[in-house]
Design brief:
Helix content: 40-55%
Strand content: 15-25%
CATH topology of the largest domain: Jelly Rolls
Number of domains: 4
Strand order of the largest sheet: 7-8-9-19-12-17
Distance between the termini: 97 Å
Number of strands: 19
Radius of gyration: 43 Å
């Protein structure tokens, strides 16, 4: 029945009208036949028709209900459209802000790369100048030694070789005792020629990479199926311990496909190593692999054989799966080598400066930067305590390893994959494309901070 609420009576809604049912007074029903709603005037017995006005009164007609429904839908639609417009505007504003941020980051990255390349070029030029000076000094020293030894031999010509000084002179710097003093002199003369012949090769690579190379080449040869020598690999020797010249043929049709040409080098699993492969000709379809020194398998990285192509590889990074003693070997299926020279410098540490990987202790340092930047030069000379205090403040805050790691992680998360791919497509040679994970960057930063902390502490 209807409810009494306060000062008004609320009719009872009884759903669809059913002629077979009896209804109390103040009941509202819906007639499916005409779409109108009716309210009972009094108690309605069963089997009473809806058209009997003494029992039923029209409550609302179909057209009015539809009009109310249409207005309700129209209002709802307007609210949805307004909400969609506001959402679309917010998304566009957020996208515009993201695009501007990415462009700003890209511009900053490009400028940083340019600055780093400029500093690297200055550093490399200085290294080349030092190497050239060292080369000239070495040639001068060897010429002086050669002249002195020759004069000494002339003075003792015809005498027995029992003189203590003469016997000592037969022994070279490596501890090898030659049969005669003349043999030692001829060996020294050969070293001079070797340096002169390959002097250009000596300074064509980074002085840092050359001095820190783990690899040392040796003379090697390989025989064919009939036992004759088919290929010879000659080490550059003192001029470049990681350089070789290859003559002959290599390939399965000659009975072999590999010539090993280095002393054993100890490599650790999980450690980063770089290979600077300098091949001016780049015409040999061949690869260099590291082979276990005991004659075992090829060095693997991530379960696959790790090789370095003479044609395409220049600067590579690898992390061995297993520790051990390895030797470098030249591998190909068929090629004829004629005075084919190349260098293979292997350096510990995955450190990129824009031209080659180097140590975290390399320039630019506070001292080196003070020589090329006027303001830094004044601070370095006259405000050491101010410089140290500011550095300590930065290392405890923005430059702490934790903050740098967090900044890199947040930066990487915010860069969509499509944007990263577009950047690599636009700048394919940008420094860092060989750096393939965050751990490499953070490890280099840790080593860099150790070096800078030590330099600041020593001021």
């Amino acid at each position: 029945m209807a409810k009494y609420i306060g000062k008004r009576i609320v009719p009872k809604h009884c759903g669809y009208w059913d002629k077979t049912k009896a209804y109390e007074m103040e009941c509202i029903v819906y007639n499916r036949a005409d779409g109108n709603s009716y309210i009972s005037r009094r108690a309605v017995p069963a089997d009473t028709d809806i058209t009997q006005t003494e029992y039923w009164a029209l409550c609302s007609d179909f057209s009015e209900q539809m009009d109310l429904l249409e207005k309700h839908f129209t209002a709802t639609e307007q609210r949805i459209v307004a909400d969609n417009d506001a959402t679309e505007a917010a998304i566009r504003a957020d996208n515009d802000a993201t695009e501007q941020s990415i462009r700003a980051d890209n511009d900053a990255t490009e400028q940083a790369v340019r600055n780093d390349n400029t500093a690297t070029k200055q550093y490399v030029d200085a290294g080349l100048a030092r190497a050239q000076a060292d080369l000239e000094e070495a040639v001068s020293d060897l010429n002086t030694t050669n002249a002195a030894l020759t004069a000494r031999m002339d003075g003792i010509a015809g005498q027995a070789t029992t003189d203590t000084e003469i016997l000592d002179a037969r022994t070279d710097a490596d501890g090898t005792t030659h049969a005669t003093l003349g043999a030692h002199i001829r060996k020294a003369d050969g070293d001079i020629r070797n340096i002169l012949d390959y002097g250009e090769a000596l300074v064509s690579i980074s002085d840092k990479a050359r001095m820190n190379s783990l690899l040392e080449t040796v003379d090697a040869e390989a025989n064919g199926t009939d036992g004759t020598v088919m290929c010879r690999v000659s080490s550059y020797g003192p001029a470049d311990k990681a350089g070789v010249v290859v003559n002959g043929v290599i390939g399965e049709s000659y009975g072999f496909n590999t010539v090993r040409f280095s002393k054993p080098v100890e490599l650790e699993a999980g450690k980063s190593y770089t290979v600077f492969l300098d091949d001016p000709q780049r015409s040999a379809n061949a690869n260099i692999y590291f082979y276990a020194a005991n004659g075992g398998a090829v060095l693997k990285e991530n379960g696959a054989n790790r090789g370095f192509s003479l044609m395409t590889s220049r600067l590579s990074v690898f992390v061995p799966d297993t520790s051990g003693s390895y030797v470098a070997g030249l591998y190909c299926h068929g090629f004829t080598y004629e005075d084919y020279g190349f260098h293979m410098d292997s350096v510990f540490g995955n450190h990129w400066t824009g031209k080659y990987y180097t140590k975290a202790t390399a320039a630019p340092t506070f001292k080196s930067y003070s020589k090329v930047h006027t303001l830094m030069g004044l601070l370095y000379k006259n405000k050491k305590e101010t410089l140290k205090a500011r550095y300590a403040e930065l290392r405890a805050g923005a430059m702490s390893e934790e903050n740098v790691a967090l900044a890199y992680e947040n930066f990487m998360v915010d860069i969509p994959r499509a944007v990263l791919n577009k950047e690599v497509e636009r700048w394919p040679l940008i420094p860092g494309t060989n750096t393939n994970n965050l751990a490499q960057i953070l490890d280099w930063y840790r080593l860099r901070c150790v070096a800078l902390d030590a330099e600041i502490e020593a001021l």
